[in-house]
Amino acid sequence: MQEEFAQARVTMHITHGCLVVPIQVEISDEAMLEIQTEILEKVSQTGVKGVIIDLAGVDILDSFLAQAFLDTGRMISLLGAGTVIVGLKPELVSALVDLGLEFKDILTAITVEQGFQKLRPIVEPEEKPEEIEELQEPEEETAKETIGDSEEEPAESEQPDDEAIDKPKEESQEESFAEDEA
Questions:
Q1: d(Cα 27, Cα 10) in Å, to the nearest integer?
Q2: If you average pLDDT over every residue of the chain, what do you get?
Q3: CA distances (Å), 18 to each of 9, 27, 62, in order?
Q4: Distance CA 21, CA 75 (A)
Q5: pLDDT of res. 135
């Protein structure tokens, strides 16, 4: 009966592009496995890029539940989303360290808002400066080509001028040759 109550109390919702999973009651192992399955299905169906698991309502976390939350985070990662576990109380943190559980793959934060901040780069990626530079480079090359073209045009216009200068010289040579013959 408590499992059903615990399951009914876990209402997941999407906010700021993240699936938020507030755990506000103590849950059984079976309920945790159901929640884990539901989280994974929601991530897969919705395509969210971030999941925040809020454990602020949890006072006791045994090794099975703690490992299940860590595993859930790793599974979410395999689906292409990031996970932040928030709301861990100091006594839970102490117990997790005593259990020897490592959170190296999972981000943590104190509040849900801090969780959103940690997921922001994943959920709302900004354009990389490299991509912006790559987009600008062709414009610069086009500008260089235009400048290069305009520089070549005067060079071409100088050549006809040179020919025009050479022609009068040739004509003057021909005239002087004609004068020599006469």
A1: 10
A2: 77
A3: 19, 23, 26
A4: 15
A5: 52
H-only helix segments in the chain: 2-9, 29-46, 63-78, 90-99, 112-123, 129-181
Q: Do residues 22 and 54 lie in contact, with contact meaning Cβ atoms separated by under 8 Å?
A: yes
| pLDDT computed for residue 128 by the predictor | 57
Last residue of a domain, one of 99, 123, 147: 123
CATH number of the domain that residue 78 is part of? 3.30.750.24
pLDDT at residue 80 in the model = 94
3-state secondary structure 77-121: HHCCCEEEEECCCHHHHHHHHHHCCCCCCCEEECCHHHHHHHHHH
Distance CA 102, CA 97 (A): 8
Residue 28, helix vs strand vs coil:
coil
- Determine the Cα–Cα distance for residues 17 and 46; give it in Å rounded to an integer: 10
β-partners of residue 19 are: 14, 51
CB atoms within 10 A of CB 120: 15
- Name the residue range of residue 171's domain: 127-182
